[in-house]
Structure formats: structure tokens, C-alpha cells
Write a structure and sequence with these properties.
CATH architecture of the largest domain: Beta Barrel
Distance between the termini: 23 Å
Largest sheet: 8 strands, antiparallel
Structural class: mainly beta
Number of strands: 29
Strand content: 35-45%
Helix content: 10-25%
Radius of gyration: 26 Å
């Protein structure tokens, strides 16, 4: 499921890439574990070198910053290597090596799922890998059971093995997308940068994929458990990844005795309060505010919003997470004191991607007489750290107030490239564009069209949210000013409008 933005908790989580600070003290070795994986077939676990190009959202006309990193992956089938999405995101070149061999093999991304931080790779020539045994996907490990983390962390080029214990099974944010929440398993093991994408093994089978650590604690790492892995692999069976689905509701726990009494619940009755229903979401028109959700597909929802799966209490959204687009789900509710059974058809909800970090796409923008306009999303928000209260409110409430219905994009004036024609408008930077020549702005494409009309008006009048004084650009000077700023700032491509 995807949540609106929150920031404090995200600062504590980080992907286990080579750029992340290392954990300090490894956990003391645990007793040896019987496993089908031996030193002789470590070749199934690969080292991934990624050369990346990170888009520049402050100067979107530029190619972006080149970088690189090291991660881990493993063979799960014929020419199919599983790893983390964050290991290969924005990659321009991928090279993989196997244990005990210096040879580097070019690889490419076959499928990538940024919402659950998983990716599937293949090599150009699989012949050198034919003798390797793919790793089998197992089940969710039990609390206090032992696991092994295997990968290629920083500090050396050879494979590394770390042992640890499963300490928690939870539902938490995946730091790669910055907003998606799924099942996670916490392990007390020294998972270091470079371990990302590597297998966490139990009894010779994959129990999870190492993917992020907790900056505020030593020897605390997280793995993506096998239900998430299996769902990803199932989703791509048709050759396309369709993303996760969720109910599209916000719920509130029913701990307060007075609240329980108001809604007719006794002390032991299950259920959570439906606090809001996302407009145009899967449950819009099915659930209502102040419904009490008591069960999902026959699984009782307790007062904290948890259900019991495989002997463990997990967030109720986990049962929805295992479904796919087009699946129907049954909901038991209490509405105005009466029990009801309703159903909804699950589907992805594109507007919610506003809150998720985007990868592998060029920033969208347009320029006009030195003004730089860009659509608001999490990437842009992170690059500019907007302080304007109206922009922050538009971002926060883009979904729950259904702003997306009438504004495909929130167009922001992000920069003013200095030119005589645009003097004294720097105070508009960081605000949302409300209208151009009296027409409300609803998308970047529309804003571009209004600023580049067939017939040039006497003036271009740009009104921004919360500022009474408009930006006024003389029509007969606009084209010359645009060319001048493009030359002065080295802008070879003055706009990029494609999604």
C-alpha cells in the first residue's frame, strides 16, 4: 500500500547500497546451520556493478549526475537473476560477476518494481552460467529462527556470509520508493552496504532479500520476505508488472472505550474505523466514512487493524497486498449499527504515485523567457524543499481532496534564469502556477501550449497561487528572451513533456 508523505521515519531507513554508512559491529557467529548451499555453488549468488545516471531536478535540461554502486543478486531460474530495484535503478550499464571468477558479464533489466524494490535481470550470454543451480524460494521464517545473509558488501571483492536471528515481522515503509508499505522481516545481523539484493537463506532456501538497514541501530537489517517476492514473480508472468493494489482507505484503531461505545462495539468486538475513503479508489462507493471494518475475506480485523496470517499478527493490508489488479475482495463491515457484507474490485491507483520516488524517467519541464516550470512530485519536492504553504498543501492533499480530478499536474515555477525581461519576479519562485492569460493551468502540457501559442499575445500574464501580483512578459520580447536564456545557460532542449 502507498501512504501520503511523512518524513521523520524515512530518515532512519536506508537502502543497503555501497554509498550507505557501514554497520559497526558484526553479530557474534551462531552455530552452523545445515544447508543445501555450499561453497561449491556460491556461483548462484552474483556481484552486480551498476553505472548510473541520476536525473537533475534542479536543472532538468542537463543529462544528470553519473555515479555507480555495488550490489548483490542471485539466480532463480534460466537466465533470471533477482535483485533489488534500487541496485539497478537509473542504470546505464550493468555488469555481473560470479563467485571465484574475474569475468564481467553485461546484463539488462527485464522487469523492475520500484514499489516493492525488486528487479529481474538477464545476461546477454547465459552459457557460462549453465552449470549453476538456481536458488529456491522458501517461506517466511519464524521469529527467533536463524538465517544467513550472503552477498558482496563493501570492504572486499569476495563473497561474505553473515549469520543472524529473525527478531521482528512487521509492515513498514520501503525506503526505495519512500512511500510504499509492505511486509518486512527484521533481522539482527550485520548487513552492510553492498548486501542489497542478496539472498537471506534458511535451510538452503531463500527466506528473503536483503534491502535496507536502520541507521540509528547497529546490527539491524531488513529483508523483503518471500510473499512479496512471490507476488512480484507472479505479477510479471504475463510479461508486464502491474504494481500493487490496496483498498484506498485510511483507518483508525478502535482502542478508545468511548469511541467503541459510540459505534456500538463491546469490549471484545473486532474492527477498525474507516476514517476516510480515497476518491476514485477501489472502495469509493463501497465503503463510507465511519464504517467499522471487521473482516477481510473472512479474516477478522482486530482493534489495532491487524489480522492473523501464518500464525503471525500482521497489518490487515497484507491480505490485500497478496491480491492483483482485477481481483475481488470481500469486506465485513458495521454501518450505522448494522452488519453488512460488501465487495470491491481491486485496482492500481495512479494518482497515489505522486508520493512515490520515480526512477528511470527524465524530468518533465518547460522553459519560457527564463522561467522554468515543472510538475510537482516527490522527486521535485525533494530537490527543491519547497517552503510555500500552498505548494505543501497541494502536495499533501493531492489525493485525499481529489485535486487530481481537475489538475493532472501541479505546475511549479521552480527557477527564474536571470534575464532583463523577467526582472523582479524571483519572489514567485517555488509557487504553483494558477493561470496563464486567464486560463486555469491543469497540466504541464497545457502550460507549455499556453506559453507557446500560434498567435503571440501582447502580454503573457502568469498568475501564481497566493500572489496577487502577476508575472507579465511582453509578447514581442518573449521569443528573444527564451533564446537568450537558452544560450546563456546551455539549454539545448528547452522542454521535455513526455511522461
Amino acid at each position: 500500500m502507498i501512504k501520503p508523505p511523512f518524513y521523520a521515519a524515512l530518515a532512519l531507513l536506508a537502502p543497503l547500497t555501497a554509498a550507505t554508512a557501514q554497520q559497526k559491529n558484526p553479530l557474534a557467529p551462531l552455530p552452523a546451520q545445515t544447508s543445501a548451499l555450499t561453497q561449491n555453488n556460491y556461483g548462484s549468488i552474483i556481484r552486480i556493478e551498476a553505472a548510473t545516471q541520476v536525473p537533475d531536478y534542479r536543472e532538468p535540461w542537463k543529462a544528470g549526475r553519473f555515479s555507480g554502486g555495488i550490489g548483490t543478486g542471485f539466480l532463480i531460474g534460466h537466465n533470471r537473476f533477482l535483485t533489488n530495484a534500487h541496485v539497478v535503478s537509473n542504470a546505464r550499464r550493468l555488469l555481473i560477476t560470479v563467485h571465484g571468477s574475474p569475468r564481467k558479464h553485461p546484463a539488462k533489466i527485464v522487469h523492475i518494481a520500484h514499489d516493492c524494490d525488486l528487479a529481474l535481470l538477464e545476461v546477454e550470454n547465459f552459457m557460462p552460467f549453465l552449470g549453476l543451480t538456481p536458488l529456491q524460494i522458501g517461506n517466511v521464517p519464524k521469529l527467533e529462527s536463524q538465517v544467513r545473509v550472503i552477498g558482496y558488501p563493501v570492504g572486499g571483492n569476495r563473497i561474505s556470509v553473515t549469520r543472524g536471528v529473525v527478531s521482528r515481522i512487521d509492515f513498514n515503509t520501503y525506503s526505495h520508493s519512500r512511500s510504499d508499505q509492505h511486509l518486512v522481516v527484521q533481522i539482527d545481523a550485520a548487513i552492510n552496504p553492498g548486501n542489497s539484493g542478496g539472498p537471506v537463506l534458511q535451510n538452503g532456501k531463500v527466506a528473503g532479500v536483503a534491502f535496507q538497514g536502520l541507521r540509528s541501530a547497529d546490527n539491524t537489517g531488513y529483508m523483503i520476505p518471500t510473499p512479496v517476492v512471490k507476488r512480484f514473480l507472479k505479477d510479471i508472468e504475463d510479461g508486464h508488472y502491474d504494481q500493487y493494489v490496496d483498498l484506498g482507505i485510511n483507518s483508525f484503531p478502535m482502542f478508545n472505550p468511548a469511541m467503541r461505545k459510540k459505534f456500538g462495539l463491546d469490549q471484545n468486538s473486532p474492527g477498525v474505523l474507516v476514517a476516510s475513503v480515497t476518491p476514485d479508489g477501489p472502495c469509493d462507493g463501497v465503503l463510507k466514512n465511519n464504517d467499522i471494518l471487521t473482516a477481510i475475506n473472512g479474516n477478522a480485523v482486530d482493534a489495532a487493524g491487524n489480522i492473523l496470517i501464518d500464525g503471525e499478527k500482521v497489518n490487515m493490508n497484507e491480505i490485500v497486498e497478496r491480491k492483483f489488479s482485477g481481483d475481488s475482495i470481500q469486506l465485513n463491515i458495521i454501518r450505522a449499527g448494522k452488519p453488512l457484507s460488501v465487495s470491491c474490485t481491486l485496482k492500481p491507483f495512479p494518482p497515489s504515485r505522486m508520493y512515490a520516488a520515480q526512477y528511470g524517467v527524465k524530468p518533465r519541464f518547460t522553459t519560457f523567457a527564463g522561467l522554468v516550470l515543472q510538475p510537482l512530485d516527490r522527486n521535485l519536492y525533494a530537490a527543491h524543499s519547497f517552503t510555500n504553504t500552498r505548494v505543501r498543501r497541494l502536495f499533501t492533499h493531492y489525493v485525499d481532496e481529489a485535486i487530481f480530478k481537475h489538475r493532472k499536474d501541479i505546475v511549479i515555477l521552480t527557477r527564474v534564469l536571470a534575464d532583463p525581461v523577467n526582472t523582479h519576479v524571483s519572489g514567485h519562485v517555488g509557487t504553483a502556477v494558477k493561470s496563464i492569460n486567464g486560463e486555469k493551468v491543469t497540466s504541464l502540457e497545457q502550460a507549455h501550449a499556453l506559453l507557446h501559442p500560434k498567435d503571440t499575445p501582447e502580454f503573457f500574464i502568469i498568475q501564481c497561487e497566493g500572489i496577487e501580483r502577476p508575472i507579465v512578459i511582453p509578447g514581442d520580447q518573449a521569443a528573444e528572451a527564451s533564446q537568450r536564456t537558452q544560450t546563456n545557460y546551455g539549454i539545448s532542449t528547452p522542454s521535455h513533456l513526455d511522461q
